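Researcher: Here's my situation. A collaborator sent me these components and asked whether they could plausibly form a single complex. I don't have experimental data yet, so a predicted model of the whole assembly would be a useful starting point for our discussion.
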Amino acid sequence: MTALAPEHVTMPVLGRLSPHASRADQVAHIAEAARQIRLQDLKLVHYANAGHIGGDFSAIDVLATLYGAVLNVDPDNPDDPERDRFILSKGHVAGALYTTLAAFGFLPVAELATFLKPLSKLNGHPNRNYVRGVEANTGPLGHGLPIAVGHALSAKLDVSRRRTFVLTGDGELQEGSNWEAMMAASQHELDSLTVIVDRNRLQQGATTRETNDLDPLDAKAAAFGFAVVEVNGHDHGELLDVLSAVPFRPGKPTFVIAHTHKGHPISYMSNNVAWHHKVPDEAQLQQALDELDQLQRRQQDEEVARAAGDERQR
Amino acid sequence: MTTTTAPPTVGATDAAGPIADRPRFDCRNAYVETLADLAKNDHRIVGVVNDSVGSSKLDAFKKAFPDRLINVGIAEQDMVGVAAGLANGGRIPFVSAASCFLTARALEQIKADVSYSDRNVKLCGMSPGVAYGELGPTHQSIEDIAWLRAIDNMTIVVPADPAETAAAMRWAAATEGPAFIRVSRMSVPEIFDAATYEFVPGRATTVREGDDVTIISNGTVLWRALAAAEQLEAEGVSARVVSMPTVKPLDVDAVVAAARETKGIVTAEESTTAGGLGGAVAETVVAHHPTRVRILGFDAFQPTGSAGFLLDRAGMSPEGIAEAARSLL
């Protein structure tokens, strides 16, 4: 198998639209970012012969929405003390994070070619001391939420408007540290904190239900003092609307249950537990790239139809 | 790293008389007074506790800085993660919790969120070692130094008296990076002069000159080492006593000098014999100048008993330490 090389890194740097861009344009931009990130991430995992493609693909739409239009972060000033913080608690989807950070200018795209190579800065789990934009060295599960609570507390002490977002896996919520942190978030009325759960209902080897059921997750989060919102975690419009509107209840942290599918939208991966950290072979890579192309053409057709509809309404 | 061979700040045989007869002080008082003083002058400093307000003597701090004492409840993993997040937001958290729970329950948070993430978090292990002697091995914390010593990017400080506790706190507040400071509740005599003592990480202090044998110690056992040296002196044995407040990084030069210049080394600490100060000294001696090392500490779960009783029982009474030193002559 060919090893990961510079020619496999072809993603453009997308950057952000003006905050004054229309919602439709923002959503289209996020969709394009998510598509590009998936195309690139597929190649990273295929050629590096390792990675967590299933979890990457369930989280990429959330990541693209956050970095594409929600987070107040600036690649030219990544250490701004007043930046929003995004903490990736499910650190094993580092490939998705690196690719997203590259798409939005935090990481040179060319550096993606070092993914998982000896001495690379792009370890299988993110390291903030090596990669701009990474806020915490996660990997062991159940660490991101307490860190996010600590940051939100610091913002409250500073009387700052900076916000904290943390993305956790759903299986990860089996770690008790999350629930300790949720109690503290509620106790301290941290409404600048948004927890996003990548609710793909699959963990490493089975469904969450078969393993250690989380349901009723909405009721549990509400009982822990959170304002709970459920979204389609692959619908960029829904994600944008919800993540731009937090907090929903003054004094309450927000708990966004993002319903996702592991491996989305690739037909042979989607919602298939086998794809937690399986590597697509040559044929599977080609099929996935083709499917993403077909998806893009369909979206373009829809876009044309929508624009035509708008025209008719005028 | 440099070896300090200057005269000790306070000698074991100075005008204050035998060290064992001097008044004793609870280092937690120096801890809370210093923390409050630091917090007064630096708004970034916050306390983080796991309901351990009273046991850390932080009631006055809480009254003075109500917003800046963050009590996460009985939740150590959350406590250390929250501290890392506070540090991400520019604060300097002093986590203050019983050492047994802080280091054992939150070990992975200490490793990943603090050390590996290189966050400016100060971990203050209260009542470590056998301070909770009567409460048994669940609450005794003889393993904390060995556990944390295995973690990269962690300075480990075991102060021996109030002046050293205060100096270590001031150093920690002024120095970016992770640190673990052990703060005992067991009263100890003053060894260092608060007005002149300067804490430098990785630097040992020869608190008593001697050229027959060396005793390397820290924390609550240092005064016992000095008392042992007084006893040995009466027998005509010249024992050097080296105060090694920083277990990591270790003052390699001071250890090598002791190995080279005296007949052997006794280490004495309120910690497990595996992987603590004794382990660090032995590793150093083997690599640089092999000599005999007697490691005094706890080699098993300890029974119920006061801290003093357990230290004596493990061979760390002044007589026990002197006996170990004699065995190397």
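Model: Some features of this prediction you could bring to your collaborator: The two ends of chain A are 55 Å apart (CA to CA). Chain A touches chain B at residues 81, 85, 127-129, 135-140, 142-143, 145-155, 157-158, 164, 176-177, 180-181, 183-184, 187-188 (CB under 8 Å).
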